[in-house]
């Protein structure tokens, strides 16, 4: 139950300032924030005293008198220490006594409706909203379970022309109700000390925006930004937070490969059409390896492979598509939680994520919250489903005929993410959205066929059991060309025994079987572009959005970047394009 110094979250990215101006709050008193939930044994009391943040963790059933005494003793001690250090400065000799006695500890009282709260009342009942905590001559207004930011961070890298999306999490409040004010530093502070230490609060600031997301302009280059955010729940407000960017705004790359594409997606698709995106965004765990820097992408400037830089581009690219459904592959867990979720949330999208255990990355599916609600999830690890779910027993039996192939299949951690969404404009109307990233090896066609066999069997089962009649939208990086067995399985419903992919990895792993998709022929909505992946040593079409043409029709396909745009910096990724893949975007007419 000691007084804990105020905890700071997000210090790695942001310097958080806790200057509290009494006028900012309710015009008269400093706030004392109390967090007290039924069923939790402890409550926390947070307030500012003598210039530092105090945070007390106490039992809910402890008598309030004990806490008040603790505050009083803590204050007396710190004042005593301050006096001692002053005496030392004055040069009091050791052993010398001074006539002054220790002052009595300051009076600490808790009042509600003008009445003093008895010392015997338990904490849980004593700290009521609107009570007044009196510490000496300072009065605090008790705010119980007021809207509070539990996470508040600015991104590490700010580029002009690219949206700055704070990572915010609010308790007892609603992000949609919160108030935001952005400021720009008046004069850049160029001293090395300033760069190291916390920002000086007297550096003047000019207001530059009042939205949750701020897009810095070229005039902001070289200046830091400050965000003042007030957590709210309807009309009820909590203590504001101020975040100052760790660094200054830097120049953005100018023209990006997706800028021209945004001209086609300025507005959201009109119901009943749905805009769908699939995009392998290149996981940081792969982009930052020595192999990537020296062998795979030697043509890419090293700074353009860094995560903060690429995230700036990815967030702007995705926001500008105004999509209803976004399927991403190669999403790092940290990127999903700290970067994409807060950014896309600000643009009206919610998301779900499924990690691939061995790789620390996985697929993520986002959907527009004004259009869809998530009804259920049916994600599987393909290798685990093959061996444990009886619906795959026939396929398992065939694969088990070749030990080498079976062993390889079971070592893969490939996942299939399956989300059933309901159309909010027409309740009862549902769609099954699947998202996967199949095995990557150029000679792995046979393994990919088995993986897709498991995926289609699972999808067929989910739709018939959970949402009969719902159309399937199947997105992903299938690592398969239009000539592959996987493409044939989806577009023609079956793959014959003699397909060359069955022996793609040589005779010892050869495994021939007839495979059926269990669906009518599916259509590749964006057809077959010349390439969706363009790196130094390879280019080809690997990514797809497959639909059921009897339920959905393609309304428009957003053109891919021109070959000139893709090759301006030799290949992908580049300073103007954040991944080695290109996003596919299309508008689908889904007739009610």
From TrEMBL:
Superkingdom: Eukaryota
InterPro entries: CCR4/nocturin_mRNA_transcr, Endo/exonu/phosph_ase_sf, Endo/exonuclease/phosphatase, PDE12-like_N
Stretches the record annotates as Disordered: 1-32, 70-108
Pfam families to which the protein is assigned, alphabetical: Exo_endo_phos, PDE12-like_N
Subcellular location: Mitochondrion matrix
Location of the 2',5'-phosphodiesterase 12-like N-terminal domain: 147-250
Cofactor: Mg(2+)
Major localization class: mitochondrion
Gene3D superfamilies the record matches: Endonuclease/exonuclease/phosphatase
Biased composition (Basic and acidic residues): 12-22
Molecular function GO labels: metal ion binding; poly(A)-specific ribonuclease activity
Basic residues composition bias: residue spans: 1-11, 80-91
GO biological process terms on file: mRNA processing; nuclear-transcribed mRNA catabolic process, deadenylation-dependent decay
The family this protein is said to belong to: Belongs to the CCR4/nocturin family.
Protein name in UniProt: 2',5'-phosphodiesterase 12
Lineage, highest ranks first: Eukaryota, Metazoa, Chordata, Craniata, Vertebrata
């Amino acid at each position: 139950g000691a007084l804990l110094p105020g905890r700071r979250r997000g210090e790695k990215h942001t310097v958080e300032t806790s200057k509290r101006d009494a006028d900012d709050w309710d015009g008269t008193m400093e706030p004392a924030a109390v967090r007290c939930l039924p069923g939790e044994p402890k409550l926390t009391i947070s307030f500012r005293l003598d210039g530092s943040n105090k945070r007390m963790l106490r039992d809910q059933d402890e008598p309030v008198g004990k806490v008040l005494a603790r505050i009083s003793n803590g204050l007396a001690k710190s004042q005593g220490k301050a006096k001692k250090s002053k005496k030392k400065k004055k040069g009091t000799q050791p052993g010398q006594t001074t006539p002054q006695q220790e002052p009595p500890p300051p009076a600490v009282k808790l009042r509600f409706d003008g009445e003093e709260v008895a010392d015997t009342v338990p904490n849980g009942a004593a700290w009521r909203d609107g009570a007044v905590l009196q510490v000496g001559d300072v009065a605090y207004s008790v705010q119980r379970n007021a809207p509070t930011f539990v996470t508040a961070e600015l991104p590490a890298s700010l580029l002009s022309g690219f949206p700055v999306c704070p990572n915010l999490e609010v308790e007892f409040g609603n992000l949609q109700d919160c108030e935001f004010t952005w400021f720009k530093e008046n004069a850049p502070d160029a001293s090395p000390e300033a760069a190291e230490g916390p920002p000086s609060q007297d550096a003047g600031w000019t207001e530059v925006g009042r939205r949750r997301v701020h897009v810095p302009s070229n005039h902001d280059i070289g200046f830091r930004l400050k965000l003042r955010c007030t957590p709210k729940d309807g009309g009820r407000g909590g203590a504001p937070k101020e975040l100052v960017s760790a660094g200054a705004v830097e120049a953005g790359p100018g023209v990006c490969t997706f800028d021209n594409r945004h001209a086609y997606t300025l507005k959201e698709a009109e119901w009943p059409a749905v805009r769908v995106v699939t995009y392998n965004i290149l996981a940081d765990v792969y982009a930052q390896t020595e192999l990537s820097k020296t062998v795979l992408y030697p043509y890419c400037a090293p700074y353009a492979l860094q995560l903060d830089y690429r995230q700036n581009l990815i967030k702007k690219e995705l926001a500008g598509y105004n999509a209803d459904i976004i399927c991403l592959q190669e999403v790092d867990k940290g990127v999903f939680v700290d970067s994409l979720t807060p950014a896309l949330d600000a643009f009206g999208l919610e998301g779900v994520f499924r990690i691939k255990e061995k790789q620390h990355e996985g697929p993520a599916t986002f959907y527009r919250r004004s259009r869809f609600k998530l009804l259920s999830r049916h994600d599987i690890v393909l290798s685990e489903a093959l061996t444990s779910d009886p619906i795959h027993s026939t396929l398992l039996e065939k694969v088990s005929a070749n030990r080498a192939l079976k062993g390889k299949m079971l070592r893969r951690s490939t996942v299939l993410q399956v989300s059933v969404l309901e159309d909010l404009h027409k309740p009862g109307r549902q769609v099954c959205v699947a998202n996967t990233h199949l095995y990557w090896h150029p000679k792995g066609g046979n393994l990919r066929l088995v993986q897709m066999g498991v995926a289609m069997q699972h999808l067929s089962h989910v739709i018939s059991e959970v949402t009969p009649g719902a159309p399937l939208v199947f997105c992903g990086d299938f690592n398969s060309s239009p000539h592959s067995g996987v493409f044939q399985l989806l577009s023609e419903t079956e793959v014959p025994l003699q397909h060359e992919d069955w022996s793609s990895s040589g005779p010892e792993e050869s495994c021939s079987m007839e495979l059926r998709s269990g669906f009518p022929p599916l259509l590749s909505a964006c057809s077959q572009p010349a390439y969706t992946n363009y790196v130094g040593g390879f280019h080809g079409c690997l990514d797809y959005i497959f639909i059921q043409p009897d339920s959905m029709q393609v309304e428009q396909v957003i053109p891919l970047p021109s070959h000139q745009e893709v090759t301006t910096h030799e290949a992908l990724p580049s300073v103007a394009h954040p991944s080695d893949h290109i996003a596919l975007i299309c508008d689908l007419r889904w007739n009610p």
